[in-house]
Amino acid sequence: MTLFEEFKRRGLIAQCTDEEKVKELLENEKVTFYIGFDATADSLHIGHFLQLIVIKHLQKAGHMPILLLGTGTTMVGDPTGKTDMRKMMTVEEINYNADQFLKQMGKYVDISPDKAIVARNGDWLMNLKYIELLRDVGVHFSVNRMLTADSVKTRLERGCTFLEFNYMIMQSYDFLHLFREYNCKMELGGNDQWSNILGGVELVRRVEHQDVYGLTFTLLTTKEGKKMGKTENGAIWLDPQKTTPYEFFQYWRNVDDADVINCLKLLTFLPIEEIEAMESWQGNELNKAKEILAYELTKMVHGQQEADKALAAAKALFSGGTDNSNMPTTQLPSDLFQEDTIGILDLLVTSGLAPSKAEGRRLVQQGGISVNEQKISDPTARIPADLFDRGEVIVKKGKKVFHKVIR
Q: Which of 72, 93, 104, 388 could, after both became Cys, cross-link 121 (CB 3.0–4.6 A)?
């Protein structure tokens, strides 16, 4: 089975500018390709991880990735999927985030000089001259066509700024620059980047009179089309300080039955035949598949030791065991206690079980919070300090999220 065939079998490929030619290139040449990562946060998230999985597949087949850190494009902000303009960031913030990205990337893909090229598009985009860019690049873009791009259409109702409107041109110029500098022949990305990728393919064809190719990969969504990798506390980050290994494990352990096989295909390196054999699984077998998914992803992202600890903690809780040594834990500041009690909403927010008191109030009112197996139904309830006499209390959110709180 060729690499392209495996991509198809795993359901990774969404769209391709020339499927037969791309298949031929990947089977017969060592192709230089690129994927861009805009440095909008100080950590990669699970959506980025899917792109890193793709890079790893291609690296193993001998192809050369360009990891493009968007230190220039982040200055503008991609309007794709946004109803409002992205927050403007300083050069210092963007460069810091890019450095953090690169540190994390090195854990999942080989970034040694003979295995990958690391580039920052600020190195060329920040030095472009406006009039020259308009004459040499802007002339090849049709405003009418740009207005039909999904990345722009979603912003038109609220208003798409001229700044954001230039994002497609900047991303397209990246492809032109990388083609000239490294003979880069392919741009890859999530399927939401299809319009931007087409812009780059067309620009290289018009300016250099050479054929290059674009390939998009399936977005990580549920069967209903909702984006995965989000919780009420925000994104599922790869940084253990932002999403703990246990929280990471629990997210994947609790995915919907309908999504587990797809996640195994897209996000793990388990043999495709082994995953396809799970497609007929039901009931408790699907729970086993979820456990495999959670363990494999946690091992890849956080290492085997953390995966083992998360698995042990999950098994102890779901089997009714008493070992909570690996459970996520928060120590409460003493100043949160007033008259030897702490408000339930303060406890939820401080422990990270709710992002705000408003969300905590909703959880309590809906019957989703228990403390030491006692349901809390009043959002003004206060937990007495003597409940911590044994050193800890266990807070349960819903049916599957447990958190240890100590004083």
A: 72
Q: What DSSP letter does each residue of 270-337 carry, written as one string?
A: S-HHHHHHGGG--THHHHHHHHHHHHHHHHHHH-HHHHHHHHHHHHHHHTT----TTS-EEEPPGGG-
Residues 253/294, Cβ–Cβ less than 8 Å? yes
Residues 57, 82, 357, 361: which is the catalytic one? 82
Predicted pLDDT at 377: 82
Residue 220's nearest CA partner among 258, 154, 266, 286 is 266
Q: Has 400 been annotated as catalytic? A: no
403 is catalytic: no
Confidence (pLDDT) at 185: 97
What is the three-state SS of 167-225?
A: HHHHHHHHHHHHHHHHCCCEEEEEHHHHHHHHHHHHHHHHHHCCCCEEEEECCCECCCC
**346 among known catalytic residues:** no
3-state secondary structure of 394: strand
Would you call 192 a catalytic residue per the annotation?
A: yes
pLDDT of residue 320: 52
Give the residue carrying structure tokens 């809906």. Answer: 366
pTM: 0.79
Tens digit of each residue's pLDDT (9 = 90 or more) over 350-389 = 877 887 888 888 888 888 888 877 888 888 888 777 776 6
Active site residue 48: yes
Q: How many helices (H) and strands (E) does the chain have?
A: 18, 15
Q: What single string gives the DSSP state of each residue in 56-109?
A: HHHHHTT-EEEEEE-TTGGGT---TT-SSPPPP--HHHHHHHHHHHHHHHHHHS
User: Which residue type, as a one-letter code, is found at position 240?
Assistant: P
**Secondary structure of residue 118 in the 3-state scheme:** strand
Kind of pairing between the strands at 382-384 and 374-375: unpaired
116 phi/psi in degrees, rounded to 5: -160, 155
Is the model more confident about 161 or about 136? 136
45 is catalytic: yes
Q: 100-126 pLDDT, tens per residue?
A: 999 999 999 999 999 999 999 999 999
